[in-house]
Every structure is written in structure tokens, then in C-alpha cells.
Amino acid sequence: MAAADRTIRTPADLDGLRFNAASLIPVVAQEAGSGEVLMVAWASREALELTLESGFMHYWSRSRRTLWKKGETSGNLQEVVSLHGDCDADTILARVRMTGPACHTGDPTCFGTLSQAEGEEPAAAPAVGGVLEELWKVLESRDRERPEGSYTTRLLTDENLRLKKLGEETVELVTALIRGEERASEEAADLIYHLMVALLGAGRSWAEVADELDKRRG
After folding, report:
1. I need a labelling partner for 182 at 20 to 30 A (CA). Which of 1, 60, 85, 121 fits?
2. Which domains does the chain have, with CATH numbers?
3. What is the mean pLDDT of residues 194-215?
């Protein structure tokens, strides 16, 4: 039996959600690439509508009683990959591409380091090919929809900017590798993202790259 599709794509899809008495719903933010849970926050319908419109996560602050865009001040943005309601329609899973740490403490996630239970098998690393293919699909979606406020949209509409950023990310990765820094893997991920956007902006496809690599395997 096929799993139900509970993806939230348009404001109309919000009609089926069950908000609480305060007109809020909990949102679990998850890094789309690694599957790591980043944080839990609350969202109002307006926050979710802004999220769908802008392509970046918006939430509702219960303490300040106001809408807030994740990373608006810190720069630690959450670019939306997809939103999903759960089976009871009272919780949302937000699959995002995180820029910087998710937690206000500076930790990558709000849950700190998760220790592995005795006898527990280490979590399998995500398949690289699958992650890259999924990222390409997201970029193609951004290219079609061009959501306002999206960093990807900015890059796709400005050739000079995207090529400049590609050069900068290349230098940052080389520098991190020379210095033996742990952030080299993060810099590599940034470079791959900017490389994909540059290819897409030039009218090339990721399939062409995959085909070329396949030819060289021998």
C-alpha cells in the first residue's frame, strides 16, 4: 500500500491542519540532506503562508507574540525543501537546507550531541548520489517558481553573483583543506551547491555531469 502524500505545497493545503487553541501548530525542522533534527518551534497559519511564499521558514514566537523569519538577524536561514503534515494533521515536518547553526547557542542543532546507545548500530550516512539528485530537484523547483527572498533565486537571476560566489567557495574550500580544518566538509557542501546553481543558470543539467562521470569510470 502506497504511503499517503501529506506534502504541503500551497496555502490551500493548510486548510486540513489542526491548529491548537492558540491557533498554532508545532513544527519539527529537519536537515534534508542528513536527516538530522535541528529544532522544534511553533507556527501560525500566517507564518506557514509566508514560508510557502518566500521559500524560507517563518515561525511564531510565543514569548514575543510575533512572526519571525529564522535567520533574519543571524543569517542562519532555513531554505525550505518541503513541508509535510503528520497523520493527525497536528504537527508539521519541515525539511530544510540549513545555513549555519540552528540553535541560538551556536550549536548545530537545538538538541546538542546525541550519544549512541550501547549496542546501537551507527546511523548510515545518506547516499551521496541520492542527496545530490534531491538537491538538484529542489534547485529546479526554485528555478521554475523563483520565490521572492530566496538566495537561490538571487543567484539564478544574477550571473555575476553566482559565478563570483562559485569562485569564493572554491577558494574557501582550498584554504580549509590546506589548513586541515574540520570545516572542509562544510565548505565542500557549499561549493557543490554553488556549482549546481551555476550549472543550472547556464542551462546545463546534473544528468550531464553524471553521464560524464560514468564515462570516466573505466
Report:
1. 121
2. 7-98 (3.10.20.810), 128-215 (1.10.287.1080)
3. 91
